[in-house]
Design brief:
The chain has 21 helices and no strands. With 425 residues, it is mostly helical. Among the domains are: 112 residues, no CATH class; 133 residues.
């Protein structure tokens, strides 16, 4: 049975196809008004962020057709303010910005707002920061007009770094004026990017809104990158349910991919508990026990266990992951991790007078040099760790283990370049 989202996207595509067929016939006779063609473009762009990626090709066709229609339109066409608005919307919707300059230069009747044309030209030339005040006034002036939410989105982009609070205000205005559209999708993504740098705690509500409405957008990978950062950076500051509740709204493949990313990021940040938590969830959501993605989740979970008292079990588990279930880079990562495990488990021999010197991490060799090589004694003292070691059957080895891993965390981070960025489809 076709899911409701699929039916919705199919309906969008069919309706958009009708629009495009009409556009193709009308353009030939120059009958179709530009503002009607812009409506078709908006409909297509909304369909794309809703998950209908097949509409991309139609979007490119319509942008090209619109460009031709606008450049060949007679001056009388722009006596209708809706067609003038269509030109500005076209320029801010991925259309050719030079077409706006072309039409504004030919305008002898004053149909185009010269102020808006000038500030947009500066924005498209990468000089938007020089027009912040002008944009602020124009956003207020155009308000709820068809051009208004587009201007607010541009103003938010310009002010995001210099004045994050004002940028969030612009993005909120976009969401209020254009709910459910590609404009809201962009505003949510850009709001999250700003909030990550200022007030991360506010990001969970935005993330939930994005997942509910735009998880299948072709731009969702940018959102996921930010959401992974939000979840890992927030760990320990609040309840994990703040973000796991959001993940629960995803379908299993996307939730599985998300947990894999969280596990890897947490692992490299030294957050072993979160790395194991995310890896276990990824394994739980894996489509099948022997799948490649399940093996990757197991790999991350085992790596997170290297710096715990379960290092022996982790080493055993690493060796049991089938080569065929891992990519070449993940196999290299596992091999590098196994070398780290071997060094961790390399214990000094103190029972033999002919024992070979033990190669120790930098910082420990000087302490070990004071120990007698011929008289069995307690293990050489190690550098203290930030937290007391948990009670185990061998507390001395546990303390040494924790010290070693702390000193080799940079090595684990360097191993990360062996990982490829998983595509978020």
């Amino acid at each position: 049975m076709m899911r409701s989202r699929d039916r919705h996207n199919l309906l969008r595509s069919l309706v958009a196809g009708v629009f495009l067929a009409a556009a193709g016939n009308a353009v030939a006779s120059e009958d179709l008004e530009p503002y009607k063609m812009i409506r078709s473009l908006q409909y297509l762009q909304d369909a794309i962020v809703a998950g209908d990626h097949s509409a991309n090709e139609m979007q490119r066709f319509l942008l090209k057709t619109l460009d031709q229609r606008l450049r060949t339109a007679s001056p009388d066409v722009f006596k209708d303010p809706r067609n003038v608005d269509a030109v500005f919307v076209f320029a801010m919707s991925g259309g050719n910005p030079q077409t706006l300059d072309f039409l504004a230069a030919r305008d002898v009747d004053g149909e185009f707002d010269g102020r808006l044309a000038r500030v947009l030209r500066r924005y498209f030339q990468g000089q938007g920061l020089t027009a912040v005040a002008a944009f602020e006034g124009l956003v207020k002036e155009y308000g709820t007009s068809p051009v208004g939410p587009y201007l607010a989105l541009v103003a938010g982009n310009i002010t995001a770094n210099a004045d994050p609070a004002k940028a969030i205000g612009y993005f909120d205005q976009v969401r209020l004026l254009a709910p459910g559209t590609n404009l809201e999708e962009a505003a949510l993504r850009r709001s999250l990017a700003v909030i990550l740098q200022t007030e991360p705690g506010r990001g969970f509500d935005l993330a939930a809104k994005y997942v509910r409405r735009f998880l299948y957008s072709p731009y969702a990978s940018q959102f996921i990158d930010m959401f992974v950062q939000l979840a890992t950076d927030d760990d320990g500051k609040g309840d994990r349910s703040r973000w796991t509740d959001v993940v629960s709204m995803m379908d299993d493949p996307r939730a599985h991919e998300f947990y894999l990313r969280v596990s890897r990021r947490a692992l490299l940040a030294g957050n072993k508990d979160l790395a194991r938590f995310a890896a276990l969830n990824a394994e739980r959501l894996s489509p099948s026990p022997g799948s490649e993605n399940n093996a990757i989740g197991q790999l991350y979970g085992d790596l997170a266990s290297i710096s715990s008292s379960n290092v022996v079990e982790a080493a055993k588990s690493l060796s049991q992951i089938p080569d065929g279930a891992l990519s070449e880079r993940d196999r290299n990562l596992r091999a590098a991790a196994q070398k780290v495990v071997e060094q961790i488990l390399m214990a000094p021999e103190t029972s033999s007078v002919s024992a070979e010197p033990v190669v120790m991490p930098a910082g420990e060799a000087g302490q070990a040099a004071t120990a007698s090589a011929t008289i069995p004694s307690a293990p050489a003292p190690t550098t203290s760790v930030a937290k007391p070691a948990a009670k185990t059957e061998n507390p001395e080895m546990e303390a040494s283990l924790q010290t070693y891993v702390e000193q080799n965390r940079m090595k684990l981070k360097q191993i990360d370049d062996l990982l490829s960025d998983e595509a978020y489809e």
